[in-house]
Amino acid sequence: MSTSSAAATLKFKDYKSETKPIWCPGCGDFAVLNAITKALAQLQLPLQNVALISGIGCSSRIAAYTSVYGFHGVHGRALPLAAGLKAARSDMTVLVAGGDGDGLSIGGNHFIHACRRNMDLTYIMMDNEVYGMTKGQASPTTAPDWEKSKLTPEGTGIRSFKPAVLALASGASFIARGFSGDPNELARMIAAGIEHKGFSFIQALSVCPTYRPEHADWKNQVHKFATGETDDPITAVTRMVADDGMSTGIMYKRDLPSLVRAGKSSLGTLAEFESEFEL
Description:
This protein has helices spanning 29-43, 78-88, 100-106, 108-117, 163-170, 183-195, 218-221, 233-242, 270-275; strands spanning 50-54, 69-72, 93-99, 122-127, 174-179, 200-205, 223-224, 247-253. By secondary structure, the chain is an alpha/beta fold.
């Protein structure tokens, strides 16, 4: 819905609930929340037409901090929950939010299949390279030589995932990376992801001052993705593999077939729903 057709212009604060976040002071997820609500305000999406689905973890608390429909799911299962909602209500704008552990460890299988189905979902992964809510264990994006976890004091010795590369290889049709230190730019990426018809993956580099205080230097390391977006997967993967993981921007966008539910966009009556299961 455009601003001109709206009865009243919605502000980003209108998309926030009265529940106050309980993240640690300085957590990047505060900025990601602001970016999500700014993106929704930019698009002037009616509150009742938006749903935010999350899993488990610090970042997944975000569903409670918005005023749109929300569902705080179980660990790693946000994407299949969101897919079910989108299949039943294709008229809804469905956002999914979670962390690197929630999305790439226990939820890794769901992530790759969500990418290949290319349903019209926007997935915001807040990547802080650590399990914050369970006290600082290494996550799938943690560098193998990170030695500050009590569980892996000599590092994990396991190579970390490159989320953007994994998303591309799995079939996502929109891939971007933003930084919590630049919430306005991140908001623009999220808005572009929502407008894209297909599976949009946005990796949000989100600082964790509690367990990864070295993230304070990210503001000096982050830089723009120099080569810009492409719709060619070969070009995209070459750039992503060579990238240092700290560049931001839309890296890949392509129109691809999207898995959609045939028929009505609403559930209809109970009798109509039951008729779909008649043999």
